[in-house]
Please model this.
Amino acid sequence: MAYTIAVAGKGGVGKTTVSGLLVRYLVEHGLKPVLAVDADSNSNLNEVLGLELNMTLGEAREDMKKGQSQGMTKNLFIEMRVNQCLEEAEGFDLIAMGRPEGAGCYCAANHLLTASMDQLAGNYRFLVVDNEAGMEHISRVTTQRVDLLLVVSDPSRRSMTAAARVAELAKEMGILAGDAYLILSMVRGELAPELSAAAAEMGVELAGFIPDDEALAQADLQGRPTSKLPADNPAVKAAFAIFDKVIPAAWRQ
Model:
């Protein structure tokens, strides 16, 4: 099965940028194929990766719920739709969760979708899941446990507290099979000792920080894919150093 890395954090803290850079890191280090899963209902991982998004899993659920199986069994129909949702790129594929648009129960559709996603994930070496703040979104996409959780926060105590709660929630839900780390983003200058002490106090290990970078901010503002910044960009170098640290050596072979 794929090694599953989940990236979580509050909105606006840079978690999708971290997810995009993580996908790039895995591909450039030969750790492919990679499946990038955008589990945020406000899908924008495709923009970070520089891909067009033509269909979401939410739309597949809608079609199945409306009975638009076109004479096929529901299993075959949802499998077809899942494959249609895949956006292919060099070394990785992207699939977006999206969100349901109508009212009513999505239990049956979600069950089939989860089964199809689990089968699909078996074709990849790494699974990178960009989440909303809560970890319950994982269970809507795949039943696989999370091998590595990266919680992203800006350098404020309130945001760090929220990040620590996400890590604790993952443990309470029993979906975290490995380690959880905190990544601080948009850090100006050197990291204040108080922040390192606060992370230790909250019980989540600080893996490192990503500097507040003007080139990254400009790329985001102009709608350019932030995952494609130059290799010598400070934010890219800092992110790659963190990934060097947190991804187990056994999975690099």
